[in-house]
Amino acid sequence: MKLDGRIAAVTGGASGIGRAAVQALAAAGARVFVGDVDDAGAAETCRAVGGNAQAAHLDITDAGSVDDFARGVLDSGGRLDVLVNAAGWDRLEPFLDNEPEFWERIVDLNYLGPVRVSRAFLPAMIDAGGGAIVNVASDAGRVGSTGETVYAGAKGGVIAFTKSLAREMARHGIRVNCVSPGPTDTPLFRSLPEKMQVALERAIPLHRLARPEEVADAILFFASDRSAFCTGQVLSVSGGLTMHG
């Protein structure tokens, strides 16, 4: 799957799935812009990748920051061919223990963040005559997850957003798809209580966590011409934990 000469942007590229996505896209030949609030982590991602990646500060909860990031990418790259909305955050907590401020942060980051970033880049993608958007949701948004109720709702929103945006953008040659990971060996997963980590890993039919690079492979598929006739689709990368008929 080659992306030679393509311009890509990845949100949340400082660690985890986002970092793996940057590495996969760059290895396929794309020039990748890495957006994250973690400037040091984004810079480390770029050092690991080499000359095909460039870091820029991005807070997807701040409209001004999103606009600045988009402007910088388009000024430097000239266009955008691939957008990967990988930034996300969660904290395991029973719904009845949630404070309203927690709900707002979860929705602002996990749902409205991808909405803001997509909106910022779409006019340029339309003018360029096409492109690919890959949203990273979660299988929590497909089947629910104890202790992640508002997060699951936000990720379910990302899935619905993906499908609706795909319908609107099809006439512009812009494909919009979604990768939906299950439990993945990332810093966010390792922040969960150990008992929860063990229980989730045991529940997976393939008896292990996903590696970030395995999720990145699915992102690369949707970013590449190998998925040229796919739009509005959701691909679970969960080791069989969530099976859909």
From the structure above, extract its key features.
single chain, about 240 residues, alpha/beta, Rossmann fold, seven-stranded parallel β-sheet, 9 helices, 7 strands, about 50% helix
Structural description of this entry:
The protein has 245 residues and is of the alpha/beta class. The chain has a single domain (7-237), classed as 3-Layer(aba) Sandwich (Rossmann fold). The protein is 48% helix and 16% strand. The protein is built from 9 helices and 7 strands; from the N terminus they run βαβαβαβαβααβαααβ. A 7-stranded parallel sheet has the order 3-2-1-4-5-6-7, with helices on both faces. The longest helix has 29 residues, at 100-128. The two termini are 28 Å apart. 47% of the residues are buried.
Structure, briefly:
The protein is of the alpha/beta class and 245 residues long. The protein contains 9 helices and 7 strands; from the N terminus they run E-H-E-H-E-H-E-H-E-H-H-E-H-H-H-E. The protein has helices at residues 16-27, 39-49, 63-77, 100-128, 140-143, 149-169, 187-190, 194-203, 212-223, and strands at 7-11, 31-36, 53-57, 82-85, 131-136, 174-181, 234-237.
Estimated structural class: alpha/beta
Which CATH top level class fits?
A: Alpha Beta
Average pLDDT for all residues: 94
Q: What is the CATH superfamily?
A: NAD(P)-binding Rossmann-like Domain
The count of domains is 1
Distance between the termini: 28 Å
What is the 3D form?
globular
Compute the number of helices. 9
Q: So, CATH architecture? A: 3-Layer(aba) Sandwich
The beta-strand count equals 7
Helix content: 40-55%
CATH fold name: Rossmann fold
Measured by DSSP, the beta-strand proportion falls in: 15-25%
Note the main sheet.
7 strands, parallel
For the largest beta sheet, what order do the strands appear in spatially? 3-2-1-4-5-6-7
